[in-house]
Every structure is written in C-alpha cells, then in structure tokens.
Amino acid sequence: MIRFLRDRxxxxxxxxxxxxxxLVVVVVFFVRNASDNMVKAGIASGFQFLWRDSxxxxxxxxxxxxxxxTILALLWTGIVNTIxxxxxxxxxxxxxxxxxxxxxxxxxxLLSTLAAVYIEFVRNIPLLFFVLFxxxxxxxxxxxxxxxxxxxxxxxxxRRGLSIPxxxxxxxxxLALLAIAVLIVAQIGLARWAKARQxxxxxxxxxxxxxxxxxxxxPIVALAVAGAATSWDVPTLRGFNYRGGFVLVPEFVALxxxxxxxxxxxxxxxxxxxxxxxxxxxxxxxxxxGLTPGRVVRLVVIPQAxxxxxxxxxxxxxxxxxxSSLGAAIAYPEIVAVFMGSxxxxxxxxxxxxxxxxxxxxxxxxxxxxxxxxxxxxxxxVTR
Amino acid sequence: xKAVRPPLPGWLExxxxxxxxxxxxxxxxxxxxxxxxxxxxxxxxxxxxEANWRGxxxxxxxxxxxxWVFIRARFAQFMYGQYPVPExxxxxxxxxxxxCVAAALSWRRxxxxxxxxxxxxxxxxxxxxxxxxxxxxxxxVETREWGGLMLxxxxxxxxxxIAIPLGILLALGRRSRLPLIRFASIVFIEFWRGVPIITVxxxxxxxxxxxxxxxxxVDRLARAVIGLAFVIAAYxxxxxxxxxxxxxxxxxxxxxxxxxxxWRITRLxxxxxxxxxxxxxxTNEFIALFxxxxxxxxxSIFDLLGIAQAALxxxxxxxxxxxAYVFAGAIYWxxxxxxxxxxxxxxxxxxxxxxx
Amino acid sequence: xxxxxxxxxLAAFFTGSAASAQQLAPSPTLDAIKARGHIECGVHxxxxxxxxxxxxxxxTGLDVDYCKSLAAAVLGDATKVKFTPTSVQxxxxxxxxxxxxxxxxxxxxxxxxNATLGVNFQGINFYEGQxxxxxxxxxxxxxxxxxxxxxxxxxxxxxxxxxxxxxxxxNLKVTIINFQKNDDAISAYDQGRCxxxxxxxxxxxxxxxxxxxxxxxxxxTEIISNDPQGPVTRWGDERWQLVVxxxxxxxxxxxxxGVTSKNVEEMKAKSASSEVRRLLGAEGKFGQMMGxxxxxxxxxxxxxxxxxxxxxxxxxxxxxxxLKRGANELWTKGGLLYSPPFQ
Lengths: 384, 356, 343
Prior knowledge:
Chain A: GO terms for molecular function: transmembrane transporter activity. The complex is a heterotrimer. By secondary structure, chain A is an alpha+beta fold.
C-alpha cells in the first residue's frame, strides 16, 4: 500500500482527484444553498427578464435605445457605452502616456521632473478621486445653458454637455466614407510599392507627404461635400436646454478625462521602462549612421522597445476597460450603471445579472488580449 | 565650425547643460517654468496662503482659500468613523502596536528576526480583530460603526493578509505539473483578473449571503474583505509567478538531486528566493489594493472616502467638497507614495545583491 | 397536597404549552431577534426627517421611530434596534438575503415589487407625493413648465419611472439622469447639472437643507403621483409579518384612541374603552397571540409615542421640515390614516 502511494503517478492522480472532489463539493454546496434561499425568498429566476420592457431612461446612447425597448437592448446600450468611453480613453491615454514617458527621459531636468511629478501624482491616488474631481470640476467650470459657449452657432458647450449638429440623412456620408475607404486602400498599396522600390533601387518616395494628402486632406474634402449636400439637425435653445443634434454629456467627458489621464501615468512608466531596455549601443550606432534624432527614435528605439512595451501596456488597456465601471459613480450609463444598477433594481435578479455582467467583461478582456497578442506576434523583431 | 563655449564655473555649468543647452532646450525650460508657475501659485494660495485655519463652524471661513476648519471639526470622524468615542483607545493602541512591531522587525540586526516575524504574523491579526471588534471582556463594537481611515487600513491589511498566502498557493498551482490543479489555478486567476473590482464588491455583498446556508450571516465588512482578497490574490499570484520564473532551474534540480520532496524544496529553496525577487511587484499590487479599497463605498461601507462624502452631506458643512477630497486624497497619496518608494529601495537592494 | 399541586402545575404547563403550540406558527425571524437581542432594521442612507444619523451615529426620523416602536413591542426596549443604511439599489438584496429583518426606508408600495421581488408591504406610515425642486430664478410654477428640462433622479426609484411616464404621456421631452445614490443626484443638481431634482415632497423637505443655499431653490406644490410608503418584509414567516403590520396599526390606533406616551400608564389602568384596554394589554392577551408579551403596544407607545407624536417630532411642526399632516392625518380629521380595529 505504502509502496503504491510512493509511486509518483499514483500520487498525482490521487491529489487531483482529491482537489476535484473538494471543488465539486464546495460548488454543489453553494449552488444548493442559493437555489434553496431563492425559492424560500420567492425571487424569480431564469433569463426571461431580458425580454421585458426596461422602462429605464438612458440619456446618452448611440444605439437608438428607447425606454420602451427590452432590458436586452438596455444591456447592449450599456456595452456600447463602455466600449465607447474605453476606446476613446485608450487612444488618448496612449498618446499622453508616450509623451510623458519620453519627457521623463529627456535630458532637460525641468521637463523630466515635471513628467515625474505627473506620474507620481497620478499613480498614487485612487481613480475614484479623479473621476469625482473631473465630474464636479467640469460641471463647475462650464456655464449654464443660457450662457453657453457658442461655436459658430452650430455647436454649444455648457453644463449639460457639448451639443453638436447631426445630419438628418446619412446617404451622403455613406458615399463619403466609401470614398475614404478607397483612399486608404490606395495609400496602403502605394506605401507597399514605395517600400519595395526603395528596397530595390534605394530611391526614396515621399510616402508621408502623399499619404497626408490622400488620407488627411481628401477625406476632409469628401466629408465637407457630403456635409454641404445634407440637411443638418442643429441644436437650438428651447426652454431650459439645447435640443436637437447630439449631446456629448459631461459624464462622458469626465470619465474619459479621468481614465485617460490616470492610465497615462501608468503607460508612461511602461514606455520609460521599454525605452530604457534598448541598449545604448543601438542608439550610438544609429547616430553614427547619420540618422536624425527623430529617425533614431522612430526606426531604431521604438521598434526594439515595442516587444517590451506591449505586454504591460495590454494589461493597462485591460485595466482601463475594467476601470470604466467607475462611471457608475457619476451616472455615466455604462454596463455597471445601467445593468448592475438600474436593471438589477427593476428585476431583483441578482445572480443572473451579475453572471451576465462578469461574462461581458471577461469576453471583452479576452478579445483585447487576443488582439494585442496577435499584434505583438506580428511586430515581433525577427532576431537573427 | 562650431564655436566652443568656455565652460561656466561650477553649478552654473551644470544648470546650462541640464536646462539651457540648445535654443529648443531654453524654450522648453521656460515653458515648463511657466506651467509650474501657473499651477503652483493658485494652488499654494488656496491650500495655504488664503486658507482658513481657526474656528469651529462654516461661518468662520471668511477667506477665499480652503476651509480647513471643516477638516479639524471632522478630523476624528475621518479617522474613526462612528467608532464609539470611549472605545477609540483600542484603535490607537492597535495602531501604535502595529507600528512598533513593524519598526522592530525592519531593524536588520534584531536577534531571531525570522522567528519574531512569524510570531508577529500569528499573533497580531487575531489580536487586531479582538481589539477592534471586542468580546472577551471588551465591549463589542460592530463593524457598521467602523469607518474612516481605520476602516481603509483594516480593509487593505486584512485583505492583503488573506491575499498573499492565497496568491502564493495560486502561483505554485499555476506552475504545478498536475494538469487539473494547474487548470483550476489558471481559471481562478484569470477570472478574478478579468473582472472590475466594483463588480466583485457587488458580487460579494449580494451573492455571499445567498449562497450561504440560511441563518448563517457573513458580516458586511468581512464580505468586502473576501471580495477584495480574491481579486488581489489573483494579481499577487501573477507577481509571485514572475519571481518563480526568474529562479534558475538549477536551484530546483540541485535540491531534487539532494533528495528533497516538493514541499520542502518549495519551502526552503524556491519560495525564499522567489518571494524576494517578487517583493517589489507584490508591493505594487498592495498599493493597487490600497487604492481600490475606495470602491467599497458602492456598498455603503464608509471608508475614508465614504466618510468624506458622508461629511459633505452634513447640512452644517455643505460645499466643502474640495477640502474633503484634497485631505482624503493627500492621505492616500502619502501612503501609496511611501510604499512605492520603499518598494523601489527594495528593488535596488535586490538588483545589487543579485548583480543584475 | 404537594403532589396534587405538582400534578396540577404540570397539567397546566402541558395544556398551556399545547395551546400555545397550536396557536403560534413557527417564526424563525422572531426567534432570531429574541436570540440576538435586537432588531435589524434597513433604513435610508440619510434622509433628514425619515432616517438620518448625526455625527455621533444616533439615528432619528419617522422611519427610524417605527423600528424603535417595533423593538419596544418585541423586546420591551426601544433602543434594542440596529440600523443598516441601504442605498436604493441594495435595499432588496439586503432584505431578501436576511441581513435585515425589515426595511423601513421610504419605499413605495408598487405592484411589480410585491409580485416579483419576494417582498410584502405591511401598511403605510407615510403618504408621499412626488414633486420637483427647481431653482427659484428658473421661474417654474407648474410641472409642465419643466418641458425640455434635465432632471436628476436616483436610479431604480419609483420617482425615476413616474417622472419619465408623466412627461411621456404629455408628449413633453425631458432628459433624465440616473444617479446611483440620492446624495449624488442632489449634489449634481446643486452643481447645475440638472434643472430639477425629483423626489417625494416629504423627502425633498428634508433634502433641501443639503443644498449650498437652500433659499435659491423652491419645491413645487404640484404633486404628480401618490407614493404610499411603509415597512417591507420578506415573503414567508407570517407571524413576523403579523407583528410588523400590527405594531404599525397600533401606533395609529393609539393616536385615534388618544393614547400618548404621557398618558399611557393612566389609560392602561383607568380607561373604560375596551379597545384601549386590549391595545395596551389590560385585557384580551393580544400580545400572546403573536408570541409577544401582552404589554407590547404599551411599551411601544410609552417609549416612542403614538404615530402623531412621532410625526410631529420628526417631520412635522416640531422638526426642521415643518410638514403639515395633510394626507398623513387620521381619517377622522380629513386624512387617510386608518387602523383596523383591535378586536
């Protein structure tokens, strides 16, 4: 018997069996308690509630949701709002983070100290403070609707948000978008051709200049033409507020600002670490070849720093998405606020709603990790 | 041909090199100075110069700056919440005790330091609960009366005490050669890392009572501690895993060659080294935990920020938002900054010791 | 002789216990309350006049008073009650999961809550009506003037739905911003995020003092809904529900019968009215029928007072809120309050 137990394989199987049984017992215990308690308390269960009318107002949505829609539609609106604010904040946090990270490495003492102060300030205070600060700070700084900042009579900024015009008809814009898509494809083709030619003949082609015209100027022209050809729903002051058009609510702005400035502090540290991991010899060699400082950074430093930067920056992006749930504290209608908040109160079905919410965050997280892994694999340096 | 400038004397030369080396540098430096000027002057004005320090009520705040009278009047609440006044000595005693023990343990030449640390870890946490909660001769102070900074510290420290061992076990589990245990650890870690803490706190406060047998009530605060501990354990596990991975394989192989079993290798060879390497990363996770304790106010537990908000709802002190948030924020900042500096020092010592 | 006495005593004991076993349904909630020695009462996070804790943690208010009466009736001591502040969202989960024995927190009785949440409403201790608070300089007189306005409200409250429905039915457009907590909604309104904040007229009277300058704001007199509010219990445990319901009735009946905290002893000893005597336990053994002591309402009235006394002290003329009785007056005086007879 003892010999039998000394066999490593047997022991392995036994350990695992033990762990499995323990786990199953615990899970069964909890599930049985839950179902007992729910029956006793008379709480409804199941997922039918998703198709009930929600009756909950969501002042900020781009899904066209109305209170007469189902709770499922409400959930979808919450998801879209979460993604919207996260996507916007990820972009801006990356830009600020890279800037501050590079500033931190500047040989100018004042500049690097300023960056260090920013980083240390942001990283050591709970995010909730920033969310509340931006929200009430933004509200206090903006004028009342009657005294709005007026931008050419078509856009208005006040405590109720930024009102911008919306097109009544999107057909023209669809054409314009199609044209832009064609331009981008053309630009990619051109860039490939230019690169191939440079590799073949060594002749440089002003890809960036052409790209600027193709993807920067022409789309503006296309959009302007489309804009002129359609009628617009311009916000106008009616009674208390500006009506019509689209309103970017202060909750969005506050959450967006808080998330991007906060996460930027963490990204800056990641960027600094990544760049410092590039060996000085690489930079010296690039300089010796006569590359300009900008090109040294762009062609030598960043490509080598990226593999070091991308994994930690991915977890910062994931943190940002998860942190967007703090929008619930300032009435930004994201998943936690509309679903775990309003819908949970309306239906009382805690278990189902929490399970769905967690599932959504896990799915979003997996999708982002998968994308970043793919990106990292594609851009990994080929070491020779 | 560039004109070679003769070096300026002493610190002026340093200044020139670090701030005014090129025309671009000069412009950048002046821009920075301008930014600093624009931010710091009104800030200092509000915080110190124009601030109100004396008095007892809102009416005493006549200057344009911050009304620190509010903080003074509410200071005890910010520290203890609703903890009964005659029992507050217990909180103070525990705080003094904890600081003394920590100070003694950080003295490197303490005799039998290791044994003392283990003894402190075994004795202090239950002692702390007894002092704070009561029983056995002390008046019971229920957790609903706790609040303020003491609650924040309690949440962070006790969640950390659960999370660290759990995180170590999970990290070991994730590197186990038994597929089922590895799989279970990975699922646990990735699940808790993948969801927002706010939802976990909700989960703990709504679901824990539902999945417990009838009549078995888990304390509200305990629920928050458990929720926070699970999440942080998952993050801690990843930090420890980093330490485990940094350990050269030769260490384990040598120990195996000596005929040591798994647990003894882990206890004597792997963990002491891996934890030392992982310490800075673990400290960072603890800082994150400390900051995230603010989220418990979503389930009406009045931590430092929650108490600050509750104080704002007091009609006698309406409109003190800035003062309350700045005061509470400063406490968080000093605590987190101190911890991170400590962790950085550890990291430096470590890299010196390992020659990396 | 001794033996006979013993047998008689034993017989009496057995018949007595058998009788009470027959009458009394098991009540896990009451047993738990008696075992732990206090009632767990779920209240509002902080609503002056209804449930509000001062900086020493002492709770006062109409809803708080009700729980104190309950403690006096069940345990004989009005101080044996502990309050759990709950947010709008948390309240149902806190009640359902058994963390509190009842909710007494400005909760409106509605059909869907009763039908789907596994909760029962045990009567009405405050007839609330929803209205709005606006800035005086906005010159709003009637609710319909709020067309195109932005309105701050606590998410998951009846006010949220009522306001949305009211404006939709009249084809008026408003923007409604849902906050997770009442206080968040109030401070956002105070900061100018919204043109109006909506809540019950009684609640607003209390919350108004949370504004930076209460004089800049005005509460509209128009009421857009009826929100009867009262104590809430879980489904099941009928005997506990009985106690919750009849303590509330008892405080109202006491006012109707003229029993106050001042004269309760005299009334118990000398009152000629049978209903008073039954209420105060001088005859009828009503307390025992629910498994309480017979002086249950006597204790409640003596220690906390009848409904009218409590009202005046917490929200009425004797308080900062200065609310008139209105609908919350006895039916004999033009109000809606009414207790079924103690018979």
